[in-house]
Amino acid sequence: MAETTNIFEQPLNERIRLFLRFETLLKRLRYFIPLKGEWSAYTAVQGLLEITTLIERGDLKQELIRELERQYNALNSLSNNQKVDSARLQHTLENQKTAIKGIHKLTGKLGSHIKAIDFLLSIKQRNTVPGGTCTFDLPELRFWLNKTYEERESDLNRWASPYYDLESAVGLVLSVIRDSATPIPFIAESGFFQEALDTGQPIQMLCVHLPQESNVYPEISAGKHRYSIRFMQQEPIDTMPQQVHTDIKFALSHCSI
Prior knowledge:
Blueprint lengths: L4 E7 L2 H19 L5 H19 L3 H17 L9 H20 L6 H4 L2 H9 L12 H7 L3 H30 L5 E5 L3 E5 L8 E7 L5 E6 L3 E8 L8 E2 L4 E8 L2
Antiparallel strand pairs: 1-4, 2-8, 3-6, 4-8, 5-6, 6-7
C-alpha cells in the first residue's frame, strides 16, 4: 500500500495484544523523555508505571521467547525455498537467535526494580485518586519535578532500562508478523465486511488499510471462526459513531506466520 494510508491493527490472540500494548507504551515513553518540560517528565513517569502494570499482568519475557522460537522454527523451514530472499531470511534468523540469547541473559522478574523504589510506588498508589498526585499529596514528586532536565532524564532512562532491553525483541516479532502478508483489496458493502477464519492456519493479526483522506474507521470483532468489520463515521468527534451505509473500498492484511 502507498504511504498515504492509515493502518488499523487488530490482534487475534493475547500474546500479540501484549506485544502491541508494550510497543505503544514504550513509543509514548520514548517520545516524552526527551522533552524538557516538567509535565513531560510527569507523563513519562506515568507511562513507566503503565508499562510496569502491563508486565505484571503478563509474563512478557517468556511470551517473547516462545514467540521468537516459534517464528524462528517457522522461518527456518523456508531456508530451502527458492522463492524466498535467502539473504533477508538469514538476517532475520540471526536477529532472532540474538534476541533469544539476550532475553535469556536477563535476570530477575521484569518490573521488580520499580517495586523497590518507594518514590514511584507512592505515585502509583495515588493514581487511583483523581488529582491524587497534587503537590500537597506528593511533595516528593514536586521536589523531583523541580530538578534539572538532565537529572530527570537520567532517572527516567535508568528506570526504563530493563524495558529498553526488550524493545528490539518486541519490534522484531511484530515486524515479522506485519511483513508476513500483502494487503488485499476488498469492498465492504454498506460498510460491513465478514469473513471466516482458517482454523488450519491461525491468523495472528488483521491490518485494515484505508486511504489517509478517508473519513471512516473500522470496528473489528473477531471470534474463533470468523471476524467482522464495520466501518464507522463520527463527525464531529463528540457525537455518537454510526455505521456508514455506503460501499467502502479498503485493503486487508491477514498476518500469520
